[in-house]
Amino acid sequence: MRKRNPFHKYFPSAKHRLSFHPAFLILVFSVLLTGCSGLLSKKVGSMASDSGEFTFEQHEIDTGSAKHQTILTGFFLGGDFAELAVVSIDENDNRHLHIYAFNDSVWELRLDATLRPEVLFVDVVNIGGRDRLITYEHGHLNWFDPESAAERMLVELTTNYKATDDGGIPHIDITHDVNGDGLNDLVVPDIDGFWIATQLGNGSFTHPIKLGPPDPFLDKIALDDSRSYREVGINALTALWYLSRLHQMDYDLDGRSDLVFWNADHFDVYLQDAHGTFSTVVETFTVDIPFDTDGAYAIAFDFKGENMFSLIFGFRENTKRRVLRGFQDLNGDGVADLLIHSLQGRSLGKQRSVYEVHLGAPSPDGTVFAQDANMTIKPRGTAGGLLPWGYSSQWLEDFDGDGEIDILFKDVQTGFVGMSRAMFGKSISVIAPTT
Fold first, then answer.
1. How much is the average pLDDT of 288-306?
2. What is the DSSP string of 84-150?
3. Four-residue CA torsion sign, 228, 233, 236, 241
4. Alpha-carbon span 4 to 418, nearest angstrom
5. Domain extents in the chain
6. Residues 143, 149: contact at Cβ < 8 Å?
């Protein structure tokens, strides 16, 4: 069963707002939550078609005041409607879990529990058809059992996670279907590779194995930070940078998705076997396609020592970087294609994008890619230079269900007017063209 709750929400520290408001209030739209369930999506669809009108219901949930709160959604209690899980830290640094459920047109508190003081971050995983809150503390991942209100061991592993200064418990997305069997697997980034544990049909997980090369920028310093990337470690912000280095494609064309990593001057491939696990013996391949780095986050390490004002507003020389975007079958021939993302501009937040598609083809050794671009895409608008959590995003999905990949570009306007609107008007302008 695939992860049914793509609308996880992470709320950063609300200290300043809490000083003016006695409670942290969340506005919940019931349509959003019911959309998490395939069954309920069908019900909502039929209701909308019958009435010819689609409306939202607004509900208000008082989650109380706290130093930090993280909100996640999931079917934790086995009901038909998704519940809200609120992970909070109070003024005495105690960690609490509150689960709210929808009942008789109102949201009510259904579970009040205390989490272990060692918990560092949380996520949601679907195990055996049931959503479970998972918590990480140094040495292992746990899952929270709502029946006993206790945390239970899931897998043993240790990653170089370092909490940020706000001291909160963030949501870090470490659950992904890496082998294509429809089950949530665990993908935990570390500075020297990735911990991979695949879920079995009985709801248990394989013993975690570490795959992939170390991050190439561990001893570099990003922007105006005084610490190296190794010293910063993995946190709620950098986890997305690390995860952007993991790629998937069916390299040997056996119908199974393999794990691929860029390693200095070549690609490392870990082939998937018939049991849904991955070989620890690495295979390699090269491409005749020039690019500067894997992951747009690497641009941050090119700007060490530069003036932040100049970086943001573009009072500097024009630069261009070619970044590996990843692999995806864009022409529907069953073979993965390679996508290069070029970023060019003076401002870190306003860079022109060009996407190059190099079509893949079968070869005796696996997959090869065309040296010259077979397709070029030039989206309107500008991109943030620190993807994947910058001011732009791209989705490559079949949005209209016609069997062909569509591309959605979302670009936040980061110029003076756009940033002023965000800071003072509390709104942003977004351009979202599709191809």
1. 83
2. EEEEEE-TT--EEEEEEEEETTEEEEEEEEE--TT--EEEEEEETTEEEEEEEETEEEEEEETTTTE
3. positive
4. 34
5. 1-173
6. no
Cα(221)–Cα(224) distance, rounded to whole angstroms? 8
Please give the share of the chain, as a percent, with pLDDT higher than 70: 75
Q: Distance between CA atoms of 242 and 256, rounded to whole angstroms? A: 24
What is the per-residue pLDDT across 362-382, written as a single tens digit (0 to 9) for each? Answer: 999 999 999 999 999 887 766
Question: Three-class SS string for 149-198?
Answer: CEEEEEEEECCCECCCCCCCCCECCCEECCCCCCCCEEEEEECCEEEEEC
Show the CA angle centred on residue 183, arms to residues 177 and 184, nearest 5°.
55
Residue 424: its H or E element: helix 416-424
Q: Is 93 left (phi over 0), alpha (psi -120 to 50) or beta?
A: left
C-alpha span between 100 and 26 (Å, rounded): 12
Q: What is the separation, in whole angstroms, between the first and last Cα of the chain? A: 30
Token digits of residue 393: 């995003």
244/366 Cα distance (integer angstroms): 23
Residues in contact with 330: Cβ distance below 8 Å, sequence separation at least 6, in sequence order = 337, 339, 357, 359, 375, 396, 405
Under DSSP, is residue 422 helix (H, G, I), strand (E, B) or coil? helix
